[in-house]
Structures are given as structure tokens and as C-alpha cells.
Amino acid sequence: MMNNTDTKQIRILAIESSCDETAAAVVVNGRDLRSNVISSQIALHTLYGGVVPEIASRKHIEKINQVIEQALSDAQMTLDDIDAIGVTYGPGLVGALLVGVAEAKAISFARNIPLVGVHHIEGHISANYIENKELEPPFLCLVVSGGHTHLVKVADYGKYEILGRTRDDAAGEAFDKVARAIGLGYPGGPKIEKVSHEGNPQAIDFPRAKIADGVYDFSFSGLKSAVLNYLNGCRMKDIPINQADVAASFQKSVTDVLVEHAMRAIDEYHMDKFAIAGGVASNGVIREAMRNACEKRGVKFYHPSPILCTDNAAMIGAAAYYDFISGKRAGYDLNAIPNLKLGESGY
Ligand code: KG4
Ligand code: ZN
After folding, report:
1. What is the DSSP code string of 90-133?
2. Buried b (16+ CB within 10 A) or exposed e, 34-67
3. Segments in the chain below pLDDT 50
4. Span 293-319, pLDDT tens digits
5. Which among 92, 180, 319, 334 would be 20 to 30 A from 227, CA to CA?
6. How far apart are CA 255 and CA 54, in angstroms?
7. Which residues line ligand 1 (CB under 6 A)?
8. H-helix or E-strand containing 5?
9. Residues linked to residue 12 through DSSP beta bridges, in sequence order
């Protein structure tokens, strides 16, 4: 089955269901995206101000078959054309992950197609391969999503060294919580970015969190508290709250910390390529700040299109390809691992 791997086109059907998007995609040789179907549950969870795990699982079950069928039909393929199935098996919501994992195992078993389990963060990082065909490790990657903030040295395909991570809230979580506090609703990131354009990023001097002992680690809960304290102070003193100024100043504080950490690591590790990934990486203000900082150092800057930053299966297909050609295979005992660590295979 593994002969001709070098010359043969490897067509991967990828499945992602770790949070609130049911997604399937077909990716050829890890870089050539043939289809990318995403069924978002955002509108549903907005009613509750955040993702409700039980509802997410139920929706995944309802949608997954049609999303996969659509991905195959958009790619003008059938399961007969597929060489491997890649599926996110962690980290994420266990009930949500299980839907994708069970589906992938069922197809793999029924059609005798090899199965590869993918780490969700590895997927986010690999989203950069799809539109940047020349990007190869080693490079530095900042993964900023709703659940994770990781500064990672990508030493090689599938080889990661975590330089820093959040001690408390993830960057996207901070966006979501601050958005809720200023009445913007869920999901916070895109809403904060939108209103920030009408605000002054220098209006309020929110803190830039420093961690003494873990030099590349992040902390966003202090910033979140500072925003909440500021809002309470305004309410108590009957001072009107300028939503756009709060949004712009908060976003500036997050941006400064992300840029500072990333550039310090680029300098220390002498990296000449830097990529961002994850839902927060679709933020235009953060991208521009990263681009400028990279340009000053002569470092090449990479980022996926917004649709490949937030959760999708294309990124899982890209990551699955490199696992597949390195010989990694999952058995039918593949399980969802909600707290799976990056670089730690659970199978
Ligand atoms: O990667 P993702 O889709 O899911 C996780 O793996 O967590 O990231 C979702 C997160 C949410 O917290 C959302 O608010 C944030 O990404 N996000 C943004 C933007 N778009 C999405 N944050 C800041 N600016 C944006 N434009
Ligand atoms: Zn994600």
C-alpha cells in the first residue's frame, strides 16, 4: 500500500469536529486543496454566549455525513479515490471529537482506507502549507486560537518544540470574554476587530502581561481583569464607556504581547521564517503588526487566509499527509483525547 509514495498523489479526506465547526476537506499531497467544506454552528451557540458542548456533539452527528459527501463531490472524487483519512483526535471537546473519530474509523474500516489521527494544533500550524507552497520547516509558529496560545518551533514536519504557552486564558478566549463584557457577544474576536477600527488603541493603557520565570509563556487573565475593572470603574463613576476605544486598546495590548514574544524568540533562535495560525491569526491588526516586525528583521512572514485560520479540515488534511508519508497509522482503537499534548502521539 505504501509503495510509490514518492511519485503517487496522496489524496487525503480530512475530518475536523473538535469544537463548533463540522468540517471535511480533500487535500492532495498535503498542499493542494481540492475542497473545503465547513458547517459552522456559531449562530446556534451565539444564543448561549459560547459553545455548549452537548449541542455541539449533536450538531456534528446531524451534519457530518453531508459535509463529507459535499467535500468529496466538490473535489470530484469518491471514496475510491481516497488514499488515507485524516481526523482530529485531540485536543478539543470530547463528545465533539468522538463524532469525527467514530466517523473516520467507520469509513476506514468499511472501505479499508488507512487512518491517520491528527493533533488539532498541528493542523492549525499546517494550514500555512496550503497557500505557501515554498514554506518548509524549520520555522517559528505562533498558534493563537480560542483554546490555545502556543509559541512553537517547528523543527521538522511532525517535530515541535513548545517555547511558550498561556498560563491561563488563551488569546481567543480573552477576545471572547472582553467582547462579552462590552456587550458585543460571541464570537468576540471578529466583533472586537470590527469595532476597533472606530476606536483609539492608545485611549486606555491596559497592562502588557510579563511572566518572570517562563520567558515565552503568556498570560491574558490579568488583562481581562484590567478591562473588567476599567468597565466597573466607569459604571461606578457614571462615565460613559466607549466600546470602540476599549476594544481597540485591548486588542493593542494583546497584539503588543504577541509581537514582543514572537520577535524575541525569532531573535534568540535565529529563525528566518515566522508563521501565525489559529482563529486569532485572522485578525488584520495582529497580522499587520507581525508583518511590520518581521520586515524590520528581514524575516519572512506567513499566514493562512482567514478561512484557513479558524477551524477547518483542510489544515487537518495538510498535517495528515506528513504523518502519512512518515508511516504513521492509527488503528480502530483510535480514541478522542481531549487534552492531547502537541508532539505526543496518543496512538
Ligand atoms: O482556531 P479557532 O477557530 O478555534 C479553536 O481552535 O479554538 O479559534 C476561534 C477563536 C475564537 O476565540 C475567536 O474569537 C477567535 O478565534 N477569532 C478572532 C478573530 N476571528 C476569530 N480573534 C481576533 N480577531 C479575529 N478576527
Ligand atoms: Zn482550532
Report:
1. ESS-HHHHHHHHHHHHHHHHHHT--EEEEEHHHHHHHHHHHH-T
2. bbbbbbbbeeebeeeebbbeebbbbbbbebbeeb
3. 1-5
4. 999 999 999 999 999 999 999 999 999
5. 92
6. 33
7. 19, 145-147, 172-173, 175-176, 187-190, 193, 278-280, 282-283, 310-311
8. none
9. 27, 84
